[in-house]
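Q: what does this look like with zinc ion bound?
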Amino acid sequence: MILNYTYRIYPDAKQETLLLEWLETCRVSYNYALREIKDYISSRKCPIDRCSLESEYIMPCHYPFPSYHQQQNNLPLAKREFPRLASVPSQVLQTNIRRLHDAWDFFRHRGYGFAVIAIESDLSIPDPMPHGHCIGVDVGLLSYCATSDGFVEPGRKFFKTAYRRLKVLQQRLSKKQKRSANYEKARKRVEKQHNHISFKRKDYQFKLAHKLGDMADTIFVEDIDFRLMAKGFLSKQTIDAAFGQFRSILKYVGKRRDVSVCEVNSRGSSQTCPNCRIEVKKELEDRWHSCPECKYEIDRDIASAQELCNRGIEMLSTQGLWGKEIGYQVGLSGVMSLDKWRGVARLNSDIEKPAL
Ligand SMILES: [Zn+2]
């Protein structure tokens, strides 16, 4: 058992000089030992098959990690080389090294517990082939998305309360004096809230992607460049809704669930009747599709999604991809998939999962 007592000491001038010398020697030896650890770490940062520009093998690869015991055992050798070390009692130097390693261990537990291993391989997981039940998905601002089967995910002002809090925090930050301690505190709060919102949004999008994955085997989405849309007059809402991110998440989820997600040309998809394919002009505020030609009536977003589905199936047929599928998917021709949604648009409440 070790008991530590602390006493106040009153050294005379000579003793004080001596103690200061010891302290300085301790500082130098501490830094030397720390440098040795740091060199070891940076020597091993470099990829094994090459020399990087920022780190080299300062210490050869067979050199062991400079542990406490190793550095302590090296002290007598070091004393021969640097006589200054000998003037300090050996326990003092040993304790010094011990303190360094305690601090090092503490540092490694805290926050540096992860190792990122990147494995490169020639294998690539192929994208799922289009097959089975197809749906088109139209994203919008009034409804977050609508499918050709009639499912509508209601539009949402993203996390109203979370945004309100963000605004308050930003206002508080603007009143703080720059580079003061309070400014830094307020800035961290704003950053935290931003992260919170982005996490919530991602979580929502993952759940929605899985929901859509439950509904279909093949999903057609717009090929629109949402970044351009974000520059227009709908900018704020578009950025909030983060459609580009949603499309990426949908593809990611699809790949893991064997749901094919394809982009199709979306130009004018909202201005086309999905039933007879003539152009039916609509303004942004027109929420209803009503075809003067074939009398097809349906919600505007659902009509757009159905047109996307049409185009997707056409695209696959022209590429010869669809024929390949129907070769062994008896009774699931593209035409039948088209028939599935024709005239059978149902209310959101009527469907949870479309019948396959
Ligand atoms: Zn029509």
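The first strand starts at residue 134 and ends at 139. The radius of gyration is 33 Å.
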